Amino acid sequence: MSSSVTARAGSFVQVLRRVFKLAAPYFQSEEKWRARAMLLTIVALNLFYVYVAVLGNEWYGRFYDALQTKNQAVFWREVGVFGWIAFANIAVQVLKFYVTQLLQLRWRSWMTRSYLSRWMADRTFYHLELARYGGQAGKAGNEGQTPDNPDQRLQEDMQIFTSATMTLSMGLLNAVVTLMSFIGLLWGLSGNFSFTFSGTTYQIVGAMVWVALVYSVIGTVITHFIGRPLIKLNFTQQRYEADFRHHLVRVREYSEAIALDKGEKVEREQLDLRFGDVLRNYLQLIKQQKNLVTFTSFFGQAAVIFPFLVAGQQYFGGAFQLGHLMQIGSAFGKVQESLSWFVDNYDSVAVWRATTDRLTSFDDGMRAHAQRDHGLQRTPADVLRTDDLAVALPNGTPLLAGAALAVKAGDSVLLQGPSGSGKSTLFRSFAGIWPFSKGTLDVPDNVAFMPQRPYVPDGKLRDALTYPNPATNFSDDQLRQALADALLPDLVARLDDSDAWSQKLSGGEQQRLAIARVLLKKPAWLFADEITSALDAQAEGVLYKRLAATVQAAGGAMVSIAHRAAVGDFHNQRWTMVPQEEGANGGARYRLNTSAVQPAAV
Which of 62, 220, 269, 401 is the least buried, fewest Cβ under 10 Å from its Cβ? Predict the structure, then answer.
């Protein structure tokens, strides 16, 4: 039993540490003085609210005594006093609500921007996804270092955490202050309670205080055992909801491909599967919440009549007047309510605890990424050169080992090999975004990397064309010329049209738009990954000639990945990924063979 209590206490301390780690940065940030001032204002308003409640309790005694004695003058005087107490109560609640909401808004704004900056810095968003799909996704209870659904963490969990932390912490403060204010009052009002047992008379000093304490402790213990499963269920519910939402977004993004493949049935099955998880877990939540609500409702209703049952005998015996009894009932309610704060807020605490665990795993994942060992040493240079380059998959499987490659200005290299051999992964290593690479890499400036599937943002066409640079960096004539050179004459007059271009443009048009970006920005070094796979041979030839001419004019080089043999006409070197026997060359699956080819005239 003692070990179980110790473990729970340790778990509670651990939760508080997680909350402090998440909450403290804002109150130590550049907004700290405003944040602290607002927090102190809320605390002061809570203290004043409790003071008004004490005045209200004293008013109960005077008012009900006036009713019992039929003292009309005192009755009307106390009606006026009640007006002032009610006005103060309303004013402090409105002001407390307003300041609390402002603080929550500012806190959420700062926290979201801070986490967004960390998530988008140093390609953390990309590396966390790699780690996730490498089988390291975070689990319930904060296991693992890689979070799932960072979009939900940044949007929904931030809002829940800031709101719940303020609500619960101020509620707990209010409960503690109320307890301290009313427990002495209840002690004095209770007097001594006497009873006889086995011929011996016993006296209990401050009996109503002890009754409230025992009543609340019993309720808290029972509530914890009934509601404990809610923490894990809430954590899992948030994950299932995010997975369902994520798949809905994927169906929308790939709507054309799904429609062409007639994949509606499969996608519907996948959505039903994910939504089924949502419903099953939510049903478990409902069952647990039903049990919790059943007990807390009974507990709360019983607390209304309980003090009158205990103190009623003394009242009917003439020990005190009606006003005194009403004061006891009011004070008992305040003390019991304060001691039962955990009972009344258990469901909210469970959601808050689950949200804290999810945000902590997100924070830990980003910290782990920031502290990771950068095995690939990148150095600026006028050539591309690797020394002892090793490239692996996220699961640790080595693709290449000990690779020594060199590309100088004027070269044009074609990288080929079997599908899945790691050609694109080698490009990611050159770009510095692949975290599973080791060795030394010299990289030139003014580089452009073109992935197999270009990213085309929604919005104005001019912004999609110049992405990620501002469209204002280029004139309209430059933009139109780039589109024309990329064989997109139909888009020349649509620079200011807004659309979902990734859905509107065909695969070939998207590839040509990406080529238009390169022709517009004129990089010296170009790394192109299957950039013409959706184009016909004639368009491919025209565009490769223009890309090669652009690179040569800038005094750089071009490295391409392509399966089509005709692309080799625009390159003077060939790198080939060749499978090798298991255990050879450090256990890598492939080795790179280099050879010279005779390019076609550009």
Answer: 269
